[in-house]
Amino acid sequence: MNQRKGFGIAFYILFLMLPIYWLLNMSFKTNQEILSSLTLWPKTFTLDNYAVIFTDPSWYSGYINSMIYVSINVVITLIVALPAAYAFSRYKFVGDKHLFFWLLSNRMAPPAVFLLPFFQLYSSIGLFDTHIAVALAHCLFNVPLAVWILEGFISGVPREYDEMAYIDGYSFPRFFIKIFIPMIRSGIGVSAFFAFMFSWVELLLARTLTSVDAQPIGAIMTRTVGASGIDWGVLAAAGVLTIIPGLLVVWFVRNHVATGFALGRV
Amino acid sequence: MKKIPNNKAWWLVLPVFLLVAFSALIPLMTVVNYSVQDIFGPNSAYFVGIDWFRDVLRNEALQESLGRQIVFSSAVLLIEIPLGIGVALMMPTAGKRASLCLILLAIPLLIPWNVVGTIWQIFGRGDIGLFGRAMNEIGFDYNYTADTVDAWLTVLLMDVWHWTPLVALLCYSGLRAIPQAFYQAAEIDRASRWAIFRYIQLPRLKSVLVIAVLLRFMDSFMIYTEPFVLTGGGPGSSTTFLSQTLTTMAVGQFDIGRAAAFSLIYFLIVLLVSWLFFTAITYPDRDK
After folding, report:
1. Distance in angstroms (rounded) separating the CA atoms of residues A201 and A74
2. B41: distance to nearest CA of chain A, Å?
């Protein structure tokens, strides 16, 4: 039984890794080799594709831009979602259920619906082509999800803790920061991971709201489709580099996954 | 947990409300405004009532892309949810191998969507791509840019590759949260493997499955970048999904009134179906 399981998962991982392997393989090849024939590993191994990205500011600034707006987004998401999730979990108030579903409904708005109004809105308040604009726009789908996830975690913490802290003379903000946040830290890790992931990979809004100064890496990559055809090698190298920040994040949250993703509700 | 009635809790929710309202209500109002007007320029527009809506509902191209969208999303859910549960059940339960599996599983999720499209675009090519070449070598006449069935197969396969890990990660953590005592009790009762799955694991996975199903439905119904990069909607319009039709209308043809009406109908469909899923799956909890 266990052997069959191991075989199954190995097969699945192989399926997951094949396209990644192909991307990695291409990133070390010259364009000539990529287009001329199919080779399973680079015949002439080259790092030129990566050199292009690391030496050209118009390339590497894309990574910096993406990381800036993703970080801002994660921070905003957590700061506003934590108190809200606490309120939804602990209190009954006018319109709480409607508000909760309304929040979720924003996760369901097709980005295409919002492209034009977003562009106009952010242009009119002078935020067009700034990192903060993209970070705010991504809050539209990240904040509801974070509230949803955190609400599950907070409901998993018995209210006796809140009451004990109150009796011990803790003020609410102090209790929240000193006692409560450490208790739900795996929930915070998981919410941060989801916010990071969805903001890092989203492109439609990010591209609409930026032109030069805050352009995400994904948008810069589409530029390689130029008059001289597609520069596959550089494109592959850029693709490989987009995976790395995510890998670092996963590395840090991996131990929270087992306890964390279950959202405290199971 | 019993909740305490306290209307002051609104203050805690206010930041979220303001933030989301800013990003959602203002644009949504703009869309509603567009959807009832015919716009010629910045200062010339006139009220047309529900004409655009009537127009959109009769538009054949839209009906077709809606049909394709429904088929696509159903296929995505039918394949990815069971597969994700299966993968989660097969994963090692602890130790370094579990960590490694988790990290490898997360990789497809962390690739920007247009890069996912690009990867598969090359991977599926019959001359220089591993997958396309392999398919041709074993005797299939595979060409996703020319053949409708192949294009669909590739788009579906790409989505399964990309998103099944999300379902698997959620289910994996749900499984890890089941107390060992449940399994011990099952062992004493000599429960079969299937009985353990059906009566212990599946019910306990319900809360994460709600999230997995909803996220997968919403995101697959709004899919845009990946098929656009992969096939450009072709061959013909066989892989043109709703978002792409909408974007072509709004940005390509600058047909704003019609696009706005279309957007609202689109939004309502997603909202309605998600609400149905949400209440259907969480309904039995209501009585508790």
Report:
1. 13
2. 14
DSSP A171: -
Render pLDDT for A143-179 as a digit per residue (tens, 0 to 9).
998 998 888 888 888 888 888 888 888 888 888 888 8
Inter-residue contact B177 to A262 (CB < 8 Å): yes
Model confidence band, residue A266 (pLDDT cutoffs 50, 70, 90): very low
Residues of B in contact with A91 (CB under 8 A): 3-6, 9
ipTM confidence score: 0.85
Question: Are B84 and B164 contacting, i.e. CB atoms less than 8 angstroms apart?
Answer: yes
Closest CB to A262: pick one of B133, B165, B176: B176
Cβ <8 Å between A261 and B12:
no
Which residues of chain B are modeled with pLDDT < 70?
1-2, 39-46, 281-288
Size of interface A-B (CB pairs under 8 A): 288
Q: How far is B238 from chain A (nearest CA, A)?
A: 20
CA-to-CA distance for A57 and A218, rounded, in angstroms?
15
Q: What is the value of pTM for the model shown?
A: 0.87
- Hey, which residues does B4 pair with through a beta bridge? A91
Q: Which residue of A has its CA nearest to B160?
A: A16
* A216: number of Cβ within 10 Å: 29
Q: Which of chain A's residues have a Cβ under 8 Å away from the Cβ of B9?
A: 87, 90-91, 93, 96
Residues of A in contact with B129 (CB under 8 A): 22, 38
Helix (H) or strand (E) holding A258: helix A232-260
Print the SS3 string covering B153-200: HHHHHHHHHHHHHHHHHHHHHHHHCCCHHHHHHHHHCCCCHHHHHHHH
Per-residue confidence (pLDDT) for residue A261, from 0 to 100: 60
